[in-house]
């Protein structure tokens, strides 16, 4: 493109300001449009291999971003090697579940993010409702909190059903049990 600008303090008019498009340079730029230029110090590699490595690098960076932001996993300074390995395994499993959820959302609820779904469904909890029996034992009945309408919609969109609750159980009152209620 050729541009003629007016001189300092000169009025801008059709004569003092003109431009002309260089069609040859435009065609040359269009040939490069949509292409990537990767710069590397690896000279003996096949360009297709370099591109695959670059794409892999961007996926790894996205995974770390997900671990830090969406899942809130931060470095924990463990002293024992088996604890470090366990922390890495739990972080990896959390990431795998996040990716699985993202894939499921694409097909069923494309406007939602894994983070939004996890935040929305976090309020659904399972708890043990405990009742004392007349013979001093405790009747323990697991129950879910009732999903709010928005949570029910998310569950429905994803085709998820809350798992069946285990049957009630009876246990003896003891350590960690609730004190007897007087009625």
How would you portray this structure in words?
This protein has helices at 23-32, 47-70, 81-108, 114-121, 149-158, and strands spanning 2-4, 18-20, 126-132, 137-144, 169-172. The chain is of the alpha+beta class and 183 residues long. The protein folds into three domains: 2-32, no CATH class; 47-111, no CATH class; 123-166, no CATH class. The N and C termini lie far apart (91 Å). The mean pLDDT is 83.
Which features characterize this protein?
5 helices, 5 strands, 3-stranded antiparallel sheet, 183 residues, 44% helix, alpha+beta, 14% strand, two-stranded antiparallel ribbon
SSE order and pairing:
Elements: E1 2-4, E2 18-20, H1 23-32, H2 47-70, H3 81-108, H4 114-121, E3 126-132, E4 137-144, H5 149-158, E5 169-172
Antiparallel strand pairs: 1-2, 3-4, 4-5
Count of DSSP helices? 5
Indicate the proportion of strand residues.
5-15%
The number of distinct structural domains comes to 3
**Biggest β-sheet strands, sense, barrel:** 3 strands, antiparallel
Poorly predicted sequence stretches spanning 5 or more consecutive residues: none
Tell me, what's the shape? Answer: elongated
Helix content: 40-55%
End-to-end C-alpha gap? 91 Å
Average pLDDT figure: 83
Radius of gyration: 31 Å
Oligomer class: single chain
């Amino acid at each position: 493109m050729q541009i003629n600008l007016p001189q300092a303090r000169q009025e801008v008019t059709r004569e003092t300001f003109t431009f002309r498009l260089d069609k040859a340079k435009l065609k040359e730029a269009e040939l490069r449009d949509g292409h990537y230029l990767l710069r590397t110090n690896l000279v003996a590699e096949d360009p297709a291999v370099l591109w695959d490595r670059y794409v892999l690098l961007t996926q790894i960076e996205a995974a770390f971003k997900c671990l830090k932001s969406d899942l809130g996993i931060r470095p924990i300074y463990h002293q024992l090697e088996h604890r470090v390995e366990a922390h890495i395994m739990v972080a990896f499993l959390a990431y795998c579940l996040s990716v699985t959820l993202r894939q499921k959302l694409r097909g069923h609820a494309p406007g939602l993010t894994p983070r939004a779904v996890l935040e929305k469904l976090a309020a659904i909890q399972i708890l043990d409702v405990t009742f004392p029996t007349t013979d001093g034992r405790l009747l323990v009945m697991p129950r879910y909190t009732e999903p709010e309408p928005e949570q029910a919609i998310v569950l429905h969109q994803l085709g998820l059903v809350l798992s069946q609750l285990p049957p009630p159980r009876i246990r003896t009152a003891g350590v960690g049990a609730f004190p007897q209620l007087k009625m």
